[in-house]
């Protein structure tokens, strides 16, 4: 089940934060950098998020989420895609992206991820995203920017 999330709901936000920290800990290990902002985020910061959120559940347990924003009327920008590592490789990330496409069918979609996070890079490429650039966020640590336009 995929549904909109209300991050001001404290018990939900606590679970979401646990998933986020676990997911970004895996990315930090993959890219060799633990300065990823969502990995450092606390509960109050998450609850104050102005992003839109969709969550995916395995039964009654939140196991993943996607956060997104609208920088302009044509674009959806994916700011976070997280899946609990215990539930990885089961299609939850792809399902979240598919549902986002259904709910917000904008002509342009943008996302970025750690360049060494090959599972995420491959997921975005498999969904038609093309690399538009790389940014060095710390010495030797790169983030790849992707864009998909219809």
From TrEMBL:
PANTHER family: AMINOALKYLPHOSPHONATE N-ACETYLTRANSFERASE-RELATED (PTHR43877:SF2), AMINOALKYLPHOSPHONATE N-ACETYLTRANSFERASE-RELATED-RELATED (PTHR43877). This is N-acetyltransferase domain-containing protein. Keywords: Acyltransferase, Transferase. The keyword NAD does not apply. Residues 7-148 form the N-acetyltransferase domain.
């Amino acid at each position: 089940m995929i549904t909109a999330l209300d991050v001001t709901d404290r018990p939900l936000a606590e679970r979401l934060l646990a998933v986020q920290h676990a997911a970004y800990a895996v990315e930090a290990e993959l890219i060799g950098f633990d300065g990823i902002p969502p990995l450092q985020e606390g509960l109050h910061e998450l609850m104050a998020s102005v992003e839109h959120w969709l969550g995916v559940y395995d039964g009654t347990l939140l196991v993943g989420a996607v956060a997104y924003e609208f920088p302009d009327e044509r674009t959806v920008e994916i700011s976070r895609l997280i899946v609990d590592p215990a539930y990885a490789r089961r299609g939850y990330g792809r399902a979240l992206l598919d549902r986002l496409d259904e709910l917000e069918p904008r002509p342009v979609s943008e996302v970025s991820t750690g360049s060494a996070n090959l599972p995420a890079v491959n997921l975005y490429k498999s969904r038609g995203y093309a690399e538009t650039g790389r940014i060095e966020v710390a010495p030797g640590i790169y983030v790849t920017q992707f864009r998909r336009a219809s």
